Amino acid sequence: MSEPKPLWLRLAPAIFLLLWSGGFSFAKFGLENAEPITFLALRYALVLAVLLPVALVLRPPLPKRRIDWGHLAVVGFLIQAVYFGLSYYAFYLGISAGGVALIVALQPILVALAVPWSAGEKVPPLRWLGLLCGLAGAGLVIASRYAVEVTSLIGVLAAVGALFGITVATLYEKRFGLSHHPVTSNAVQYAVGLAAVLPLAFFTETMAVEWTLQLGAALAYLVIGNSLISVTLLLAMVRHGEASRVSALFFLVPPMAALIAWGLIGEVLPPLAWAGMALAACGVALVGRPGPRARRV
Question: Residue 276's closest CA among 142, 165, 156, 137?
């Protein structure tokens, strides 16, 4: 008989979904005041400025093996440099928020296709039905809420690269990830992210920043809500649960992002969007439905 999940782990999906979805709006605010890679470098530098004093006080345990340091670095590079870097670059090249969200919403399908070989998970037919319902629901919300405009082939390729970055990171964490202290794992991964994006910003951008209250608010949210809380919860959920179930949460990101915009700034959601959110929620419920443990292949 398995032990019950701790309260924080039961609440993790809802907290992650809320904070991750809100990051789209705050990222757009920040990109109005800085170039995309420069903005990421600034964000990661601030995360490390928060984490390093905490690490000096807490002195968390460090990975004991060199390979464990390598696994942390790989996941950090895939999420912080590849996923976020290419997502922001796609926005910068003119791909709409809806276009990027629609492409990234394919991530649960890719994870479900890959986990039988990468992590040994067998995805049952009912979960496949949930994955397809989630994808359809996310697509309905995007189609009703955003104008999906393809204005740059390079931008589309950047969004596809971001999709593969977060997909490979999820599979890699499930296969090789270990339970490290969150301060240790975050510090390593954001240091890797900063080391990857800072030289890129230096050589490809002007690195000019317009310091405004809007930029400060965006950075505060993204540093605390996205970088410190959301990513920590995502990796913890992957380690404690099945990768295909955790990835299904990404189907709810476009609907939740539209719902947050409606609540905060009064953007009206058409009836089709509400139907899409309901369909996506049903899909995630099917994917996360308790039942026999997934068989290992």
Answer: 137
**Calpha distance 85→79 (Å, rounded):** 9
pLDDT tens digits for range 23-79:
877 888 888 899 999 999 999 999 999 999 989 998 888 888 889 899 999 999 999
Rounded-to-integer distance, Cα 80 and Cα 194, Å: 8
3-state helix, strand, coil in the chain (%, to 5): 80, 0, 20
SS3 assignment for 51-77 = HHHHHHHHCCCCCCCHHHHHHHHHHHH
pTM of the predicted protein model: 0.77
E strand or H helix at 25, and its extent?
Answer: helix 7-31
Q: Which two tokens stand for residue 279?
A: 């369909």
pLDDT in tens, 134-168: 778 777 766 775 544 445 678 888 988 998 998 89
Alpha-carbon distance 10 to 137, whole Å?
A: 24
Q: Which residue has the tokens 């629609």?
A: 102
Alpha carbon distance 175, 118 (integer Å)? 7
Length of the chain: 297
Specify whether the CB–CB gap between 116 and 297 falls below 8 A.
yes
Gap between the Cα atoms of 185 and 178, Å rounded: 10
Task: Identify the three-state secondary structure at position 106.
Answer: coil
Residue partners of 143: CB distance under 8 A and separation at least 6: 98, 272, 276
Q: What is the largest CA-CA distance in the chain?
A: 58
How far apart are the C-alpha atoms of 213 and 226, rounded to whole Å?
Answer: 19
Find the mean pLDDT for residues 87-92: 85
Q: Could you read off the pLDDT of 224-246 as tens digits, one per residue? A: 998 888 878 877 787 776 555 66
